[in-house]
Design brief:
Layout: E1 2-6, H1 11-34, H2 36-43, H3 57-80, H4 87-107, H5 124-129, H6 131-144, E2 154-158
Antiparallel strand pairs: 1-2
Helix pairs in contact: 1-2, 1-3, 4-6
Pfam families: DUF7704 (PF24803)
Keywords: Membrane, Transmembrane, Transmembrane helix
Protein name: DUF7704 domain-containing protein
Length: about 160
């Protein structure tokens, strides 16, 4: 038998982690796999191929692999988090996603420091790559710090899976 700590989630966490962010990740997967030229052009127009037909095979493969990771991200949040009220599971998964947020932001460094703060220069991709990631990371940090999770967790005994 294992002991689990159940949580009552505030609506803002449920809405963001179970709906908004998974839908956003599906949109990212769609663009990375099916709209590769647009994805590259919106990420960095100056280095993107001029036309769809000029995307190198290696870039296409990597973008499809990225789309697959976006789908994994979606499934982890939309499905795994829906299956449990165990605070340890939520904290573990959200910590992993926080590390991914930091890696995602770090990966933008080649675009120059302006990408992190010059909202007047952002396009649709930048809005997803920067402030939306800042928001997701902030939500995860808030959850990990217990913000809004008033009251003690409910402890229940159950079978270990």
């Amino acid at each position: 038998m294992s002991v689990t700590a159940s949580i009552h989630l505030p609506a803002v966490y449920r809405l963001f982690f179970l709906f908004i962010e998974p839908v956003s990740a599906v949109a990212g997967a769609y663009f990375a796999h099916f709209r590769q030229h647009d994805y590259l052009s919106m990420t960095h127009a100056a280095s993107a191929p001029a036309t769809e037909g000029e995307i190198p095979i290696v870039s296409s493969v990597v973008l499809s692999q990225l789309a697959n990771l976006y789908l994994l991200f979606t499934l982890n949040e939309a499905l795994v988090l829906r299956t449990t009220a165990d605070r340890r599971v939520w904290r573990t998964l959200l910590f992993g996603l926080l590390v991914a947020d930091l890696g995602h932001l770090y990966s933008l460094r080649a675009l120059g420091s302006d990408v992190y703060w010059r909202a007047d220069l952002w396009n649709a991709m930048d809005w997803g790559n920067v402030p939306f990631v800042y928001l997701g990371a902030s939500m995860r940090i808030a959850f990990l710090l217990g913000i809004g999770l008033n009251g003690p967790a409910t402890v229940t005994k159950g079978k270990r899976l």
